[in-house]
Specification:
Elements lengths: L1 E5 L25 E10 L4 E10 L11 E8 L16 E7 L1
Antiparallel strand pairs: 1-2, 2-3, 4-5
Length: 98
């Protein structure tokens, strides 16, 4: 038997040809529906199925946390801990939340 999945563009999956797949849902701010397609064939007959998945925001009641202190156990010169939000990597960054 062969399995062929049709995947939404913004959804990473473990495989497009296995009988079972794992996927990461997109981050949403309001409920949404994504649709997968599955085509199964035994070489003679082919069947298709559309699968709809309801996605809800994760913990929508939580607000954004504010960073209180940024510390690093080690860093390169010019990559100071207080510059952590500049997109450059740090070694062992520790953030403390309020």
């Amino acid at each position: 038997m062969t399995f062929t999945w049709t995947i939404p563009a913004n959804v990473p999956v473990s495989s497009k040809t296995d009988s079972k797949i794992k996927f990461l849902t997109p981050i949403v701010t309001q409920s949404d529906v994504i649709e997968f397609g599955l085509e199964i064939s035994d070489g003679q007959l082919t069947q298709s199925k559309a699968l709809q998945i309801n996605i809800t925001p994760y913990k929508p009641e939580l607000g954004l946390a504010k960073i209180k202190i940024i510390e690093a156990s080690n860093y390169n010169l010019s990559d100071y801990p207080q510059n952590v939000d500049d997109g450059e990597p740090f070694d062992k960054v520790v953030c403390k939340w309020r």
